[in-house]
Amino acid sequence: MSRMDAAATVVLxxxxxxxxxxxxxxxxxxxxxxxxxxxxxxxxVDPQDYGSEGPAPAGDGGERxxxxxxxxxxxxxxxxxxxxxxxxxxxxxxxxxxPAEAPRRFHTWxxxxxxxxxxxxxxxGEHLDHVWLTPREALRRHGEGQVQLAPPTWVTLxxxxxxxxxxxxxAEARRRPPATYQSRMLEDSARARIIAWSGDAEYEPGxxxxxxxxxxxxxxxPWVYEHIPAG
Length: 231
Fold this sequence. Notes:
Elements: E1 4-16, E2 19-26, E3 38-39, E4 42-44, H1 63-81, E5 91-97, E6 105-114, E7 129-133, H2 135-143, H3 151-159, H4 166-175, E8 179-182, E9 184-187, E10 193-196, E11 213-217, E12 224-228
Parallel strand pairs: 1-6, 5-8
Antiparallel strand pairs: 1-2, 1-4, 2-3, 2-7, 5-6, 9-10, 10-11, 11-12
């Protein structure tokens, strides 16, 4: 099992003519994490993000880890886009823990935040381009092979498909606890690429029989998210 570091991501929301839009940044194609993918602003939690007490244990999901992730999200957004966020305006959306076999593992907090006023200014060399898109348009482009998305980005966009105005999305997120996605890779008889999460019938090998589905099927484009409660 590879080492797991802490990271933070922020989903910036603004209202557009066709509904809420999110900011996506294009990663360089030949270097770094998520090469060539379109991602939300974010990055690794640095030691200084934990404050005077110093770093928490790797993968810490307690208050210290969440505080540090919030600070990292604000710092990374400023470094990558030039946009200055209010730390108090960030809302915890989800926590992502990658599969054990992933080459690089990041315990990543995803936050929602209202987009501040101002133009996006990219950090040269870190990202190639940026775009504001509705979740539906981002998924359409991915499904047609126009852009690359990482599974957590795809699932987050899918969860915002039917979102209302940005303020209502943020208010709803404040009312419910953040979701945890501890990922497990599955491989069926057709050798499909599938990531499953808790609630899926095949998530726990040898577990109790269940008809539930909570998985992302990535065999071909467009990807399909199956979420069916156990019957």
